[in-house]
Structures are given as C-alpha cells and as structure tokens.
Amino acid sequence: MSRLIEEIKNYQEAFKKKAPLEIQEIMLKATKKLEEQSISKNALKVGDKAPDMKLPNAVGKEVSLYETLEENDFAVVSFYRGVWCSYCNLELKALQEKNEELISLGAKLLAVSPQSPDASLSTKEKNELAFEVLSDNENVIAKEYGLVFSLAEELRPIYLSFNIDIPANNDEDSYELPMPATYVINKNKEIIFSFVNEDYTKRCEPQDVVDAIKAAK
Q: Keywords in UniProt for this one (predicted)?
C-alpha cells in the first residue's frame, strides 16, 4: 500500500468516526450518482492534444502551459478542488514528495484549481509546495479538459456545515468544481498519461506519473 493510499484510508476512518451517519450516506449517494453519469468519459485522454492555459499563480504571475513545455520536456498538470479539500491536500503533499524526481526527469508540475489566488497561496503555504499552484477562475481551463461538474444541491448545506464556502473560496457564485485529474503532457503538447475519476476520494498515485515519464523518455 502506497503512502498516499494509506493516508487517505486513515483520513476516511477518522471521518467515519466523527461525521453523522446520515451525512455520510448523503455524500456517498452523491458520489455514486456522479459515477453513474460517467462524466469522466468526456474528459481529455491519452493521445489528445492538451489545450494551452495561461493562469495566475499564487502571487498573481501568469504561467503558460505551452511556455512551460518550451522550457521542459514534460508538464504534469494536476486539477484539484481547493484548499478546503482534505483529499486534495493529501494528494498535493504526495506530489511534493516526488517533485525533485520529476524535475530531474525534465518535468514541471502545475496544480490547478478554481479557487482565488489568495486561496491558492494558502494551499501553497499550508502544504509547503515548491511547485506552481494556479487559479482557474470559473473553471475555464477545466471545462476545456472536460472535467467540470456542479456540486449536488444536497451537498451544499453539508459543506457549509463543515465551514466550506465554495463560492467564497472561488470568488464566484457557482458550485462548479473539477473532477480530480492528473495529466502528463509532452513537448508535442500530447497527453501521454491521464487519470480522471468522478470519486473525489480516488487520487492519482504520484509514482504512476513518474513511471509514465520514465517510459516516455
């Protein structure tokens, strides 16, 4: 069992002990409904051309995917929901542990979420991330990658009860979020590895990203 999977399992066990059963059931049903819709089938996949993105980082500086690929052999793009998402934070920390190895392989890591630059800065500082954390306001880029869905109505008051205010965090009124997704993109702007899942508790293994890059070199 990888460290990320183990940490997710530990978090889930702790959550089950403290969260009311009826809330857990609502959350599970919402995830199952999203899975039944199979929205991940609309996401970009291996072999597709990756659209460019020009997004502000945590301090407001614009970062371009295509310019990143001019300077690096690969780009690793990880879409996550926000600083409020414990699963996202676990995944980002796991990616940070692989960041030096990714750099040595000629890859640059870009994490993308719909949250505001201020919230992205909080994410970067909270998780001690050395890679770029970008703000995709209104999920413009995530929509181009086919990743966006609207958070179920029945989940919104539950999230608020957890002090998670998605519109405030994203600085816009919708409850749209990206599915967790990770892409490896080569210099030709081609996607050579993809991970997309409707279930936000399922995350890409950073070692799989490393292995995909090694296989492509």
A: Antioxidant, Disulfide bond, Oxidoreductase, Peroxidase, Redox-active center
